[in-house]
Every structure is written in structure tokens, then in C-alpha cells.
Amino acid sequence: MAHYNRLSEVVYDEKLTCWRFRVKILRICPFYSFTGSGRHWVYVISYEDGTKMEMTILYVYGDRFRGLEKQEEKWVEIFRVEVGHAFSGFKTAKSPFRLAAASYTQVHIIDPLNNRLYFDFKSIHEIPHISNMDRNYPIGMNSNY
Predict the structure, then answer these.
(1) N or C: more exposed end of the chain, with fewer CB within 10 A?
(2) Domain range spanning residue 107?
(3) What is any Pfam family matched here (predicted)?
């Protein structure tokens, strides 16, 4: 099984080129810069533990990530992404680092990792009657029977 990094583990090291993350896309913001980088997208991503970071995708790589800009609130795997220092000024995440997509970066949509934000509601008829209930069956009752 592949090893995935946490966003909280990120450090800037030019020798490390194979970062792998499983994160949730919280927000996607299109930008246009007049200082030379041109049009780009900033993705605000979050790890399971709540750590947030920005990922930049430049317009020149836009074709590789076509359709991803409509995937807010989805979980993704990000492979081979570059890490750099965050820009000064306005930042949507407090991390001192940012991720930057390159021509070899891969992003794939995956099933949700963290089910704390998702509920699986059951029908009232699926809950067993209290008289034939196993005492170890959790149904959200007070444990002081």
C-alpha cells in the first residue's frame, strides 16, 4: 500500500519530489495575475485532521486538470506535487507552505476518507426493539439502563 503524506508534515526540501496526499478540496478560486504568471487557479485543500493548505495550478497546465475546477467538496489523491514557500500577503490558509502543480502532477477523485462529516441515516424499523437488544449494540441511548 502506498504511503501518503499529511499536510502537517510538509517541509520545503528541493530533494523531495514525490509528495503524495489524500485531501478534500474545500474551495477553488480562479485568479488572473498581471505580474507575469497569468491566469491560474488556487485550490484550498484540507487533510482529515483539519490542516489546510493552498495548491496552485497555472493556466499552462489547465488542460491536464480540466473538469477538476467543478469538484469542490470532493476528496482527491494528489501525486508528485511540488512544495514551495507560501506567498506573502493574502492567503486563504495559514500554512507557511503551498503546493504547486507541475506538468507531471496527477490528481484523481477518490471516495471520502473521513466519514465524520457524512451521515448514514437508518430507517426507524432497522433499529432493534429494546427487549431483544444486545446490551452492546450502540443505538445512541443513555448507557445507564
Answers:
(1) N
(2) 12-114
(3) DUF223
Q: What is the DSSP code (8-state) at residue 96?
A: S
Residue 73 located in a structural domain: yes
- The three grid cell numbers given for residue 43, joined into one nine-digit string: 485550490
Number of domains in the chain: 1
Question: Per the structure block, which three cell numbers stand in for 75?
Answer: 476528496
Helices (H) and strands (E) in the chain, counts: 0, 6
Residue 5 lies in a domain: no
One-letter identity of residue 80: R
Per-residue pLDDT of 85-135, as tens digits, reads 887 777 778 888 888 888 888 888 888 876 554 444 556 666 555 565 555
Q: Is there a domain that residue 137 lies in?
A: no
Give a yes or no: residue 40 inside a domain.
Answer: yes
Residues 6+ apart with CB under 8 A from 81: 19, 21, 55, 99, 100, 101, 102, 105
- 95: domain CATH number is 2.40.50.140
Q: What is the pTM of this model?
A: 0.68
